[in-house]
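Q: What would this chain look like folded?
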Amino acid sequence: MIRWILFGLVCTLIFAVTQIPATWGAYVMTNGTGLGLSGISGSLWQGKAGMASVRIDGRSYSLGELNWQLKPLSLLTLNPCADVTASLDRQQINGRACASTSGALKLSDANISIPAALIQDLPEPTKLNGLVSAHIDTLKLNGQSLEALKGNLSWTNARLHNGQNWLTLGAFAADLSASDEGHIRADIFSLEGPVDLTGNVVMPLTGGIIIDANFSFSDEFAREVQADQWLPMLAEPLDDGRHRLRMTL
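A: My prediction, written as structure tokens:
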């Protein structure tokens, strides 16, 4: 009789835990992390937010609809983790997110895919096309500041519209890391195409881009973009026929 009573108590406890509302899970994930959730439904263990956003240095970035599945054993370490997926306007994100009691938010083993056309904050009349994909081994935000970053990024079928024509650029890749100042650093290089590029780009979370790269164009591409007319004003010529671009946007 006792074992049946215990069995009944365990079943009741399991049922009660699975019915904990998703708002509890949302609180765990958003408490001090800069992550915002609205339109919450489901349970603590498997929930959904109609809209998610992350706030970094006073600026909100939309993630779209977010679904999560909490890992129960992670609660024992006071470092709850969940497998998450988010989607918005052909933007796809999936990975594992962990929140700590100190307010740190960690993303690991994550994949991000976004059409380059959705990238904002570009100087007019510049437009981009192609697919930007990233794999994040580790990303850690603490107090809305970047503490750690390791991953890689690619831009395939890259094209740029200069206000008159679409220019085919090829494909590029980058190794991602966090600088000592807590900025995103991308060590970039060409994979294919008429632009042979290498260098680094630093992106502070507060905004802006710092570029330090050297490059060369194929003869055909140089003629297409009339490089001889504007390149001397924009970049420093090097001895090997390449040019160096140092710019802050």
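Residues 104-249 form one domain.
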